[in-house]
Every structure is written in C-alpha cells, then in structure tokens.
Amino acid sequence: MLSEANTGVALAEVPGGDLAGRQSVVRVEGLCKSFRSGDQEIVPLDGLDFSVDRGEMVSVVGPSGAGKSTLLHLLAALDTPTSGAVYFARNSLKDFREAELADYRNRSVGFVWQRHHLLPDFTAAENVAMPLLVRGEALEKALHAARQWLGEVGLAGRAGQRAAELSGGEQQRVAIARALVSEPVLLLADEPTGDLDERNAEAVFELIERLHRSHHLTSILATHNLSLARRTDRVFLLEHGKLTPYAGVLATAASGAAEIGARSPGGRA
Ligand SMILES: Nc1ncnc2c1ncn2[C@@H]1O[C@H](COP(=O)(O)OP(=O)(O)OP(=O)(O)O)[C@@H](O)[C@H]1O
Ligand SMILES: [Mg+2]
Q1: pLDDT above 60 for 113
Q2: Ligand 2 center to residue 159 CA distance, Å?
Q3: Residue 224: nearest ligand to its CA?
Q4: Domain extent at residue 250
Q5: What pLDDT, in 10s, does the model give residues 28-37?
Q6: Atom of ligand 1 nearest to the CA of 62
C-alpha cells in the first residue's frame, strides 16, 4: 500500500514511529551500489544501513569519489541500488510504480545540486515554477507560488530577471526555491555551497537551515565543508563504501582540515 508515500503532505498522516515518537522519513537497508568501469568494479556504497528521522538535518562528508552523490541519487530515486532498499516513510521505493516514482521525485523530494541547473533564458519565477508546471498546474497559479518562494529566499525583486543574469549566490537561491516549491518532506542537497565563495556559502547554508526549520523539512546534505557539516544534527562519514558516524577524524584527510577533498576511489578491484 503506497498511498501515504505518494505526496509529501500525506506523510503527516503516516501513523507510528517508535515509542519515543520518532518517525523515520528515510531508511536504507543493506544499500549497495556498484559501477563497472572497464575491468574494475567500483563499489561506492557497500551495505549501508541508516535512517533519518522527521525534522532531522544530517550531513554526509567524505573524500571526493566516496559516493556521496551516488547515495543522494538513490535516495531521490534518480538511480536504483545494485542491492538493498531505500524506504520513504515505510514504503520501499522498489515497490513504487513508474508514476509513483515520478510523483515521489516531483512532490516528496526537493533536490539542490552543486550547480544550479537553472534554465538560463527563463526568468527566476519561471524556473521556480517549473516543478509545478511539470505536474500540470496552471501557469498563473504556479508563478504565484514561485514568486512567494522567491520572497522566502530573499529574491522578491528579481522574479522577472533571466536566470543567466543572476549572480552565483542568487542562482543557488533560485534553485533552492525551485527545490521547495512543491513543499516536499525531504530536502536532498548535493554540495549546495560547493560553487560559492565563503560569504555566499555561509549565506546559502543559513538559508537552508532557516527553511529546514520553518518548513519542517527532513534534510540530508552532502558537503566537503566540515565547518558547515558540524552545524547539522548528525554528521556521517562515507568512506570505503561504508557510512559511519563522523568522529572528527578522517582516515584519508588531515585531522582538523576544514575541507575534505582528498581523492579516494571508494571502490575495489
Ligand atoms: N554512472 C557511473 N558510472 C560509473 N562510475 C560511476 C558512476 N557514477 C559514479 N561513479 C563512480 O562512483 C564513485 C562515487 O562517485 P560520486 O560522484 O558518488 O562521489 P562523490 O562522493 O559525490 O564525489 P565528489 O565529492 O567529488 O562529488 C566514483 O568513483 C565515480 O567515478
Ligand atoms: Mg558528488
């Protein structure tokens, strides 16, 4: 029975949670993903088990190539696991039909990428409205919601500006508004501040923190920026195919480094 998972709003109606009242929004069990590259098998995710409760903001750190993007893509149903399962609320994404997966991606999940992927010749408002238009909402209604969201991200005055004419920080704000215009339950952000200078990275991170709280989101961020990651409720380290609570020391990077950039293949022959 998949009906609870089909819209973000309906998650509120999912009964249960544990005795402490916790409710897992995302849970993965034995999650594996491997890629074949020539005669090599790359295994970025080698049996991951974790869950993220409603309202939590967690971060995933790890060296470049460790599998952070791969993990977020599986959580967003943009790719499928080699084995294991991803659950949204209590439903395995494996059991979703194609239309239900499309609905999950459109309504339940908001995705922010490192690069904004805005349509450069469309206005900020048109870009933000796109997820609503894709699912068939009327143009005026979609643009109205988009303008409200642009206000939330501090760009009320820029709704009619072409995306290409905005600064990098402004473009990322538009991308955040686009990710959230569907009022998703789950926000997935892959290096959302990775392309920004320090000042803009701080401002965009603060914005995500504020929207996470005010919209009661459950958020999972991949980042190389340890000082930003430490501001989240829990920090996971993804390395050598395994996800562990980050204890402040990296096997492959200097302890105390603010950035995790060391290259690690995250795989095995
Ligand atoms: N479609 C694919 N085909 C083959 N290999 C892939 C594919 N996608 C990812 N990989 C490999 O899987 C590994 C994990 O990649 P991923 O992009 O998830 O790492 P990451 O932790 O996000 O790195 P970064 O911090 O640089 O963004 C890498 O070795 C990458 O080359
Ligand atoms: Mg990545």
Answers
A1: yes
A2: 30
A3: 1
A4: 23-54+82-95+234-269
A5: 999 999 999 8
A6: 21
